[in-house]
Amino acid sequence: MKGLRKRAAKASRDQVLSRAVVKACDHTLRKRSEALAKLDEPQAARTAASKARSRGLDRMDDLLTTLQARLEKKGVRVFRAADREHAIDYVVGLVRDQGLSTVVKAKSMTGEEAGLSRALEDAGCRVVETDLGEYIVQLRDEPPSHIIAPAIHLSRRQVGELFAERLGMTPTEDPASMCDFARKRLRRDFLSADLGIVGVNLAVAGTGDLITVTNEGNGRLCQTMPRVLVAFTGIEKVVEDAEDAAAVLRVLSKNGTGQVATSYVSLLRGPAGPTEPFGPKEIHLVLMDNGRSRLRDDPILRDMLKCIRCGACINCCPVYRSIGGHAYGTTYVGPMGITLTNGLAGGEGLGGERLRDLGELTYACTLCGECGRVCPVGIDLPDMILKLRARAPKPPGRNLGMKAGRVILGGSRRFSATGRIAGTLGRIAPHLYAKLARMSGWTRSAAPPVPSDTPFRRQFRKWKPFVGHDALVRPAGIPAALEKGNPRDETADISSVGPAVLSRTDATTAFAEKAAQPFDAFISNFRDVRGEVASGTLTETLDNLIQGLDHPTVLASEELLTQLADLDCRVLNAADPELPLDRASQAVVGVTGCLALVAETGSILLEHGPGSERAASLLPDTHVIAARADQVVATMEQALAIRNRRDSPAATLITGPSRTADIEKTLIIGMHGPRRLVLVLL
Amino acid sequence: MKTHLFIPCLVDQFLPEVGLATADCLSAAGCEVAYPSKQTCCGQMFLNSGMPGDAAGLARAFVRRFADATWVVAPSWSCVDMVRTRYGELLEGRELEQWESLRERVFELTEFLSLKLGLDAWQGSFRARAILHWSCHMPRDGNEQDRLEGLLGGVDGLELLPRPPFECCGFGGVFWNLWSEVSASIGRRRLDVLTRDGPDAILLAEPGCLMQMQAAASESKSGVRVLHVAQLLAEAIR
Ligand code: SF4
Ligand code: SF4
Fold this sequence. Notes:
The structure holds 2 protein chains of 2 kinds.
Chain A: H1 2-13, H2 15-37, H3 42-58, H4 60-73, E1 77-81, H5 84-98, E2 102-105, H6 109-114, H7 116-122, E3 126-129, H8 132-139, H9 156-167, H10 175-192, E4 195-199, E5 202-204, E6 209-214, H11 218-224, E7 228-234, E8 238-239, H12 242-256, E9 264-268, E10 282-288, H13 292-296, H14 312-316, H15 318-323, H16 334-343, H17 358-361, H18 370-374, H19 381-391, H20 396-408, H21 412-428, H22 430-439, H23 456-459, H24 504-516, H25 518-528, E11 532-533, H26 538-546, E12 553-556, E13 570-573, H27 581-584, E14 589-592, E15 596-598, E16 603-608, E17 622-627, E18 632-633, H28 636-644, E19 650-654, E20 659-660, E21 668-669, E22 676-681
Parallel strand pairs in A: 1-10, 2-3, 2-4, 4-7, 5-8, 7-10, 11-22, 12-13, 12-14, 14-17, 15-18, 17-22
Antiparallel strand pairs in A: 5-6, 6-9, 9-19, 15-16, 16-19, 20-21
Helix pairs in contact in A: 2-12, 3-12, 12-28, 16-19, 21-22, 24-25
Chain B: E1 2-5, H1 9-14, H2 16-28, E2 32-34, H3 44-48, H4 52-66, E3 71-74, H5 77-90, H6 93-102, E4 106-108, H7 109-116, E5 125-132, H8 142-153, E6 156-160, H9 174-178, H10 180-194, E7 201-204, H11 207-220, E8 225-228, H12 229-236
Parallel strand pairs in B: 1-2, 1-3, 3-4, 5-6, 5-7, 7-8
Helix pairs in contact in B: 2-12, 4-6, 10-11
Bound molecules: iron/sulfur cluster (2 copies).
């Protein structure tokens, strides 16, 4: 595929592009190392995640059936789509039947794969991409250039200019102002949309929870404000139970964005109750196959279904770092893009483009091995790429060149003679030499290296053993047989990218101390993700927060209302069936209780359903959580177990305030959700 | 101790001086050095080009040529890795059997010097601030990395700059053949990282990467020397 190579070469000349991409990828890899260093046993975490994914795949059909049954019992409509056309037809049919017109959409790579947004636009909908990065590329009418960071290829200046040109914003290079501007615009869309679309990171068969991981809060808003929700994902996302989900969540954000946990992990297993003021009244789950079943039977590529779309392999790929995502011309890019594109639907229809020669894509790789080293679920990407090369038909010209090379190398005489001829030609007619090198398919390099006039084999004939340096004489006794593992061993250093990480002993000690003190660990981790711990009582804290504000409104969970009776402001009951949207959305502070505090990550587990809140933790600028110290649990598994004992339709693990880093990886706190997260200990 | 040189095709044709330096190092360390002249190539480039059948032919030839050697030593981690970890899938029958014992006797030069000869510090002197580029097939294990740096640490006047964050130099064999322009752009980026602290020399232990960095350095006119570790070790005691 000449097209691919040409695009890649062109992109590699674009210094601005490569600099932006490398800077952002390096930043994420650095944070990744730091986050992984906080695990006591990074290797064990990786193995556990890999096993969790394998279990899901081994029993995929059964698990999907269980999942579907569970969800349908709760009133979720499940649609199994054989391919992208079916998936799209279903969603388009839905908007037509119900006359839905404004769609707020969170990031979904499966949606990108299917071309969902475009199809809905063609059907007359206004589709608003609400993830900041997706929003930016949508304004530029481009596909995302990275599965995690869609606008990674753009500088802050480019985004500033885009916002000025397309949205009429006063030109700026300040990411915080751009985020604030986008927040205000998109908030209007969230409040008025009639359909929300989200992706799903994991579908838990054992509990029926659909898990969606986001940072900005846009996913939660899509899942909370519109009446109808479509969860759109691939069939391979299914895992057996909550423990397997926890094992995957433990490695996902650390490898993806370098966070200990993302701001929001939403768990959804059914529509909102009829008395709930917010929350989707109707949920559709689209499970798309689109080549995944075939992939499962592919001896080379099967493991790709384990992929959790963390993007770590992309960040470290030298080729991606030089050419960015668009040059690939595929939905999935970088190492995982090479393999997935080759596997899914034979590459047809990916990103709307039919690749002429998937084989060429496998050469977008130096075989450096780095992607295989970083992958948190242990997918041996380089080996897959190598095997794909063997399977793909080779262009005839290249085959001929390689075959000739094989003949030449078949004998040392032939090899020497060819070297001699090539060397002579290279010295007397370098241009012709370069031309022949290119034509033979040996190299496209502008200045191919020229063989030496006396190759090693000839020079060695005159070589004399080294004499006169007795200092180097070998010590007596040669060490015992080499004790060295297989260099390709999977146990290879998982945190080998970026600067030095904490040594294993430091990390282990740190974790042991934490485990002994879950409460202290929780507080320290909560502060690390920019949570604030209030020193006063609940009323004192709220008094402070609303002080000086003009007619402030507080939106509170029902169970806390009595404690707030003395507050000098309007307090709304977040569970009130009659709660009007316009008043709820004016609240400056939201107050909720919680189900648990998670020491491992500094997260807070909240549940949503009839009688509890959905919007108090989401719409106001500040979210206050009232909790008791005895609500601390050590691990994510324990938190999910608590969730499973409840029957509420939705829950969220909240880790810090809402945030984004979609513009040049600059961290901005407060994207779509609360800007402050304040904990009050009762 | 008798050693057989395994000189990769790139070294034979393009970097003969690296092959000679390898022979010098082994000889200085007290080894007898032989070169089986019928050798050509380990077959790596064919395997990497999706031609395992052709790679297998070269693997068979390699095993036959070196079957009787006590120790086989090469100035390339990737060729050694090819022989050690990839031949198993390519060979069968008698050659597979021969390979099973041969693989334990194939070493990269510095690995051989330290592990087999027990040299934990080289001698001699070489005045330079140098930075070592960790090629993709070089050890990623901290202890093994320390061992290699320790070997270099014995050289008087050699200041080794801290390990840079890892990234491939962009050579990749067949990648350089087909995606030359992208390959060169990765090479330039790597050179920038390696020369950030102004070293006098970049050290490598991989022939392909060495050529890639030499090309990038000469294009940039940065004046930095690009050397194989074997060349440095040999020069240090000359
Ligand atoms: S092995 Fe290939 S695909 Fe993987 S990181 Fe290296 S160059 Fe990229
Ligand atoms: S292949 Fe591995 S590293 Fe790459 S996105 Fe998937 S899970 Fe992450």
